[in-house]
Amino acid sequence: MATNYTAKDITVLEGLEPVRKRPGMYIGGVGTAGLHHLVWEILDNAVDEAMNGYASNIVLTLHEDGSSITISDDGRGIPVDKHAATRKSALEVIFTVLHAGGKFEHGSYTTAGGLHGVGASVVNALSSELRASVKRDGTLWEMSFKRGKATGPLKKGGAARGTGTTVYFHPDSTIFPKVEFDPALIRERLEVVSYLHKGVRVTFDNEVAGKKDVFEHQEGLPDFLSKIIADRGAKPVHEAAFAQTRDTSPRLDLVLQWTEATDEHVRSYANGIPTGSGGTHENGLRAGLGKAVRNYIDTHNLSPKGVTLIAEDIREGLTGVLSIFVEEPQFQGQTKDRLNNPELTSAIDSAVRPALEHWLNHNRSVAEAIVGRIILAARAREASRAAQAEITRKTATTGRLNLPGKLSDCSSSGREDSELFVVEGDSAGGSAKQGRDRVRQAILPLRGKVMNTEGMTLAKVLENKELADLVTALGCGLGKNFELDRLRYGRVIILADADSDGHHIATLLLTFIYRHLPQLIAAGRVFLAQPPLYRIDIGKETFWALDDAHRDRLLKLYGNGRAHADITRFKGLGEMMPKVLWETTLNPKTRRLLRVEISDQIVTDRVINELMGKDASARFRFIMERAEEAQELDV
Ligand code: 28F
Q1: The pTM is what?
Q2: CA–CA dist 381, 313 (Å, integer)
Q3: Is pLDDT at 629 greater than 70 in this prediction?
């Protein structure tokens, strides 16, 4: 616990000029991430006061200019007594001296020292204006700064009820090219604070949107886990989650629950900072978890016959939150979101293993459900390995000869300039085969509806001939056997009718690719073709409209006051003349493709998961709304 400090504890280091000269050294950069580090640092100081039990309310106000913020807590209030050596108040020193503050002492967990621990003084240096106010000993104190320099002395105000610290700051637009906060990012981080620090009420007062959110969770991580599982639409395989907390350093807070989902989803945090790239704390959790489950299985003779369990089986479907607090966090990696404290691996491992083993042994029915889930994962893995081996064997032994019969391959064997069009339906396939460039463009027609693979095991998926043929045609295997450089085409282009059915097929194919061939999307190799829905002839000119809105825009642009517009709606690709299909959709010189990109993994996970299980119209509507945002490329 932080002992009570007074000004004498501050170690005075150096001025703030270096910070303004090389801000990147202190906050990583002056882009959006760097801008928001200013918020996290001040917020972190308020959270630290709450963690030490002195504050229970934190309010963040995003002012209506969208570029200034006030954060306040109801903690003790930063000390204002004068520092013997410098004759300055603790408050002034904290905001004007780099790395000042007794926060390196025991019991305080701000991330001072790492990228995240820049200290309030750096925020001050990089703000065109900052105002700190403290309520302490029944009095209000205030001090203002410009670019790190005090604009006047510490002012003693009137009487004040309660205690606490409030900081207003406006980042300096001569340092940050864009001073515009991202409300969603701030809201998400505040909500996480309320989950990681149970009982602390965190308020987000968004004056830009005129909206106020209050986050407060008495349970903390168990509430967080319930939200994550609900968002992902995952179905738990056991009722009660495993929960563990430990208050001695390194502080540990952990919840785990196995679900029917086919992937692992454990979110980890160090001192409240998301560690998306994992780290030694996660390695410790995996080690402890693996040993505890294996010990349980061995002790109770539950090992499955004919299949060997691997670590991934144990964690398949596992959803959880790991939150640790350590006094000297070492953040690593490009975005500083990997934790690298070596001592944590064994510390977390030896904390989790006995607790989880104890829990399993004292909750037999839960343990049986979890072991059952693990064995299912192992068997599914085994089956899909066999299925993939079958596909690989077929493709490998006879090379191109063994390609699906329906594939009209292109003559070029160079990958980078060849493209595979995955076309819905035979008639569309026919038009595409005739209209295409035979040297560079291959056509794979798919018959009828592709199955909805969401939540299915790989073995089940590959029973679908259409998808198995697609995997064979692509040539790069899938799942654990995936090898991007065996991909036989430079681009995979989904060509479906411009109507709702076509969108539905495209969505099903995207779901399959996203779940089982995600590397193709990550490599930017997956595209959606945009065939026209309408042909519009006005006078001698012909226009092509992608959808109703586009048609109306074209008519408004070119239609009024001129010759009558002749509009034809295409019932499907199969009804298009091959030449028209070439000109409007296949020809790289005139077509417009949408490249499929995943901007936010968590959001995409939720969208695919949430909607793929529901009815098609909800799915299609949701995807088409997103399609509006999709970036158009002339490739
Ligand atoms: C909106 C941001 O920064 N809250 C803070 C405190 C409280 C103390 C403190 C902070 C003392 C000299 C090291 C008070 N009383 N919210 C905040 N609340 N810093 S920052 O002390 C800093 C140390 O420098 C505090 C007794 N001990 C500590």
Answers
A1: 0.67
A2: 8
A3: no
